[in-house]
Amino acid sequence: MGAILRDAQCAEDVGKMAELGYFEEEFVFFGCAYLENGHIKYHISGKEERICDFIEDCVLLNLYPTPVREILQRQLVPSGELESIKIKYKLQLAKMMQSDYPRIYFDTLQRFSTVANSDDAYSLLLDIQEKLEGRFEEEELHIYEGLVQMAFEAKVLTRQSYDTIHLWLKKMRMQMEDDVIIKETFSRTLYGFVYEKTEGQLDYFFNAQKTAAMKQKMILEQNGFLVSPLFIRTYWLDALAKLAQAKQDYAQHMSEVFNKNYMNLVREIRNLPSVIEREEFLQALSSLETQGYLTAQTALKGYGYRWNVLKQY
Predict the structure, then answer these.
(1) What is the mean pLDDT of the chain?
(2) Which residue has the higher pLDDT, 224 or 46?
């Protein structure tokens, strides 16, 4: 009886709030922080994928953003105040990031990020490129492009060499423009990667959401796992019921293509000497920990693995 009365009271309260012009709304925003031209900036959106895309774009812009941060709140919204409440939560998210990532973090990150890239990966990548010459397989080019991107992000490939390789990729794809792609009614894109769970043991992760794959990849990288670049594949289906089969095909394909030979290439790039002085980097990590900036320390540690400074493989 008590439960029925409570439900009735809740229904009455909702009705009264509706009469007053109130409605309940869920607010979710995603963001990251970065340093540009000496100023700390915050990039915030209601769509997580936009933040992930921005983080990817930052690589060629010489910007080094923090990991994605999220805020989720529910509240009653008076009529006409939706936009002001959105602004309130965006500001709250920015303040959360401001607290987690102080100025000293960005100054430290900039000191390391401005160190010039080496070109140690170029000869290895050219050897792979030579084997791909004349094959005109888009998937092979996509996988190769991922290794190139990883080498550039690791600071073991110069921008000039990066651009030279991408010019070759562009020429190859121009020659493939007449290739026919059979498209069906529905399409689903899957995003995945391979990582070394223990020495010599590979495991795979994939998801239909790019953001989910990117977040899991970042978590593993920040914990020192050997992780491959993201592998993206689109399936065209004549019925959504065939999606399960597409996922099985994707998993099988990953296990065949992303094998130990492929991961040895990833390892070879990851084992190239870092351009960052290791002892100086470790001191920076220790300094952030001493000052209590543990979230910032974790983010900096992620860049340490990305730049081949920190290694567990």
Answers:
(1) 88
(2) 46
Q: Look up the pTM and report it.
A: 0.86
pLDDT of residue 9: 43
For residue 117, give both structure tokens: 């890239």
Task: List, in sequence order, the alpha helices (H) in the chain.
Answer: 2-19, 48-57, 82-100, 103-113, 122-132, 138-153, 159-174, 210-222, 243-257, 260-270, 278-290, 294-306
Tell me whether residue 267 is exposed, middle or buried, using C-beta atoms within 10 angstroms of its C-beta: 0 to 12, 13 to 18, 19 or more.
middle
Any residues with CB less than 8 A from the CB of 274 and at least 6 apart, and which? 154, 155, 156, 307, 308, 309
Q: Over the Cα atoms of the chain, what is R_g?
A: 24
CA angle at residue 96 from 94 to 100, to 5 degrees?
115
Query: Which secondary structure element, helix H or strand E, spans residue 194, and what is its range?
Result: strand 186-198
Question: Tokens in use for 88?
Answer: 């309130």
CB 97 within 8 A of CB 66: yes
46-88 pLDDT per residue, tens: 999 999 999 999 999 999 999 999 999 999 899 888 999 999 9
Gap between the Cα atoms of 106 and 39, Å rounded: 9
- Structure tokens, 182: 């059979």
- Nearest C-alpha neighbor of 30 from the set 58, 53, 51, 55: 51
